[in-house]
Amino acid sequence: MHHIWVNGDKDPRNIAWNGHYYDLPHITALEFYRSGKWLYYDYFLSRAWHLMDIQVTHFAPGNWMNGANRYCPPTDHVRIDPADPRDFTSAKVFVSNTTNHHKTQGLFDRYYLTGDERALEVALKAARYAQSFGAYSDFIQPRGAGFQVLTLLAAYEYSGDKEYLETAGRTFQLWRQHFAENEAKFTQGYFMVGFLLEAFTDYYNITGDKQVLDVIRQAVDWMHTNRPYEKYSNMALGIGLLASQPDGAAYLDLEKEYLETWHGVWDNPFKDFGLNGRGIARALYYFTSEAQGAH
């Protein structure tokens, strides 16, 4: 899956490699787990390799950005978007100094499915970078906290190192405090809210902390009330978790409502598949008799 800036121009710098957008390798690994279709596996395997070698940065030991991720989707593999789409040669080489573009779960998938120790090494390097931020306090772009927590939880599930889990918990508590102190739960980056809900859903599944359900409920209710015209299917997983609770029947219809938006983007070969598709395979679980019978 590639995109180009200028139609017909064969210059290799014209390409925007979209095969990693919001960890598309992980998304396609989930689809492989769900469906058993080898097409997903083949796609995942090659993109995870590119993610491992190019998208995660490899500086000398001791460099604080060792394990950071490049902007996604990058122009020419390592550059940010050009200021003028018609002049892709002006795009600057860029490494994200946040976790807004962090993509790590696909590397753990590659290790689990193939035993590739290089994938594990790079995944843990990226996890240490995410860990270095401590409690992640950027409330403007929810994806930063979301991808930090997802990375930390993936590292915890592999290693059992509770420091990863504790840092994820500190980030959660910051957001819980932010919600308690602010009527407007989000002020920008509304398409990113689903990434945060996914992270907190995973945190709840590991810890069972009931406070997480309250924060997810506040986020969902606020978005539904205040941004009703901005529905993203990446929120469906968090909504599904609410639907599985004893008092959550109303959220099942809401989950369907948000999943309906997937129909418009599921075949988009560029950014939208990664943006909207995260968590879809897992969100469907909440319609099963097992999930609905849990209470």
TrEMBL record:
SUPFAM superfamilies: Six-hairpin glycosidases
Domain Non-reducing end beta-L-arabinofuranosidase-like GH127 catalytic positions: 99-170
Descriptive protein name: Non-reducing end beta-L-arabinofuranosidase-like GH127 catalytic domain-containing protein
Signal peptide region: none
InterPro entries: 6-hairpin_glycosidase_sf (IPR008928), Beta-AFase-like_GH127_cat (IPR012878)
Chain segments annotated as transmembrane: none
Domain of life assignment: Bacteria
GO biological process: carbohydrate metabolic process
